[in-house]
């Protein structure tokens, strides 16, 4: 009898073990076909940089502003605005579905200008978003759902790495148009115009408003006018990503030329804004998505989806800065200071390379604009820079100019000179 019980007990235990295996296999199989996400190139660069013990190593991969000592920088105007927000002892209630009106109203005026017809005629729809990425996702979902023409979006080649993934996840097809000419290390304007002309009528065209990421190559104002004319002829829809307003040239109005010109010319554009770079609010995730409507009547029916009750703290900080005349003037000066440092580092890098006797033409370093620069270096040269000179950046030759300082620019130039000759 005891033997029988033992056998039964062992059998029950075996059945329970088998059941656990089956349940475990079912649970595992539920996600077994989920594709692995692409590796984060910047994370890999950061990890390699951290593992390097060389004291004079240089990290040019991170897309965030650094001061001249290579340290993260919090704008004094942001500190002051944050103190005001905390001192106000405001409640922590939910924001409205489209965010904090004081923020969205100020963001719209910053982007479009106080004299914009879209604002004066009350035909702008705007919603607060989780920074620029959230704005892109909301914009993509809105167009996929309601845009009456093609469900394709054309991106410049190259474009910010996340653009393709965001729009695909929104249900849009992604195509590319020519933008960067690797032979001239500049804009392929003829190719751009040709591709926009040949795209099906009513296509969605993504445009970087300023400081093109990753190349740092922007159209001139005259070229923007031509792009606007061609897009109007073809009936294309302009979808602007403006992540660097004020941070590119140092002037918020100059950097907003393209979207403002398009609106002036009658384009009813979509626009994504980010306050990560120009206010240094990276982790606060402050942004906005807006849509220019044909009329006030159309605006009533243009319900743009949003993140339910977006976060309030960062938006309150940004709103305080933009709505306080003293803080706003201080902030614009600080943004110009950041932009000027980037411009100065470009000039110093070029100067050092030329003084070393480099036979290459480095004029593109100073003709490009914004945080990023396309150096023209090849992947194998970038490998040598990392392995032999402790200079870390992406393999496509893109560098974050914010990582250059007066203390490391000479060694950087020497390293590039040794790699390129």
- Going by CATH, the architecture of the largest domain would be 3-Layer(aba) Sandwich
CATH superfamily of the largest domain: Type I PLP-dependent aspartate aminotransferase-like (Major domain)
Low-pLDDT ranges = 1-9
Roughly how much helix do the residues carry, as a percent range?
40-55%
Q: How many structural domains are formed by the residues?
A: 2
Overall pLDDT metric = 90
Helix/sheet category: alpha/beta
Distance between the ends: 89 Å
How are the strands of the biggest sheet laid out side by side? 2-10-9-8-7-3-4
Task: Report the principal-axis shape.
Answer: globular
Describe the structure.
This protein is an alpha/beta fold and about 425 residues long. It folds into two domains: about 40-75 and about 340-420, Aspartate Aminotransferase, domain 1; about 95-325, Aspartate Aminotransferase, domain 2 (3-Layer(aba) Sandwich). It is about 50% helix and about 15% strand. The chain contains 17 helices and 13 strands. The strands form four sheets. Strands 2-10-9-8-7-3-4 form a seven-stranded mixed sheet. It has a two-stranded parallel ribbon with strand order 1-12. A hairpin with a 4-residue loop joins strand 5 and strand 6 (about 185). The chain starts with a helix and ends with a helix. Mean pLDDT is about 90; it is low at about 1-10.
């Amino acid at each position: 009898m005891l033997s029988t019980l033992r056998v039964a007990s062992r059998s029950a235990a075996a059945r329970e073990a088998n059941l656990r295996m089956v349940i475990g296999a079912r649970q595992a199989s539920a996600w077994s076909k989920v594709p692995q996400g692409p590796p984060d190139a910047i994370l890999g660069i950061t990890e390699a940089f951290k593992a390097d013990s060389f004291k004079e190593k240089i990290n040019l991969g991170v897309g965030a502003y650094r001061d001249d000592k290579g340290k993260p920088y919090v704008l004094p105007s942001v500190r002051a605005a944050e103190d005001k927000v905390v001192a106000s002892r405001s409640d922590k209630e939910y924001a409205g579905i489209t965010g904090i009106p004081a923020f969205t109203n100020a963001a719209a005026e910053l982007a479009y200008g106080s004299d914009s017809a879209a604002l004066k005629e009350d035909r702008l729809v705007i919603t607060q978003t989780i920074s620029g990425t959230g704005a892109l996702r909301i914009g993509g979902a809105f167009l996929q759902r309601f845009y009456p023409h093609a469900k394709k979006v054309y991106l410049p080649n190259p474009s910010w790495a996340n653009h393709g993934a965001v729009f695909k996840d929104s249900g849009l097809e992604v195509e590319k148009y020519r933008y960067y000419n690797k032979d001239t290390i500049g804009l392929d304007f003829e190719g751009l115009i040709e591709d926009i002309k040949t795209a099906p009528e009513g296509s969605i065209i993504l445009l970087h408003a300023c400081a093109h990421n990753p190349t740092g190559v922007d159209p001139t104002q005259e070229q923007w006018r031509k792009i606007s004319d061609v897009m109007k002829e073809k009936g294309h829809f302009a979808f602007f990503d403006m992540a660097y307003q004020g941070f590119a040239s140092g002037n918020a109005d100059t950097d907003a030329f393209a979207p403002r010109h398009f609106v002036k010319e009658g384009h009813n554009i979509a626009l994504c804004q980010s306050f990560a770079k120009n206010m240094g609010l990276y982790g606060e995730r402050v942004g906005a998505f807006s849509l220019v409507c044909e009329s006030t009547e159309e605006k009533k029916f243009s319900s743009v989806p949003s993140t339910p009750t977006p976060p309030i703290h960062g938006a309150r900080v940004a709103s305080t800065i933009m709505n306080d005349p003293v803080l706003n003037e201080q902030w614009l000066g600080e943004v110009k200071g950041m932009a000027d440092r980037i411009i100065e580092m470009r000039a110093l890098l070029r100067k050092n390379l030329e003084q070393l006797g480099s036979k290459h033409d480095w004029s593109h370093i100073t003709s490009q604009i914004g945080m990023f620069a396309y150096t023209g270096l090849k992947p194998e040269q970038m490998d040598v820079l990392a392995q032999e000179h402790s200079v870390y950046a992406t393999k496509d030759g893109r560098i974050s100019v914010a990582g250059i300082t007066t203390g490391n620019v000479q060694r950087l130039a020497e390293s590039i000179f040794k790699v390129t000759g």
